[in-house]
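Chapter review: from sequence to fold.
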Amino acid sequence: MQHLNDVPVKEIREGFFGKMIHGSKSTLVFWEIKKGSILEEHFHYHEQITHVIEGELKMKIGGEEYLLGPGTVHVIPSNIAHGAVALSDCKVIDSFSPARDDYK
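The token string follows.
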């Protein structure tokens, strides 16, 4: 057991600051994303579930554009192209399965 306050913050991409919790089969990330930060369109074999806690995140997922705000949840299947732009400062929780070894 650990407290989230004790988990170190890593800047994975410019403006994307995350606290990563790794299990053997999944990764949970608590993000703080700065307004104007851009996540270029990409894909990975991990299934991803994104939950916006605060702020607005414009995402392009599988060629469709979405505006995600507080309380929204989106499932991004494995190998589907997606990217994002933070329209404001955001707090987001992402769940990945299998675990994101590249985030360790």
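Two observations follow directly from the output. The mean pLDDT is 97. DSSP finds no helices and ten strands in the chain.
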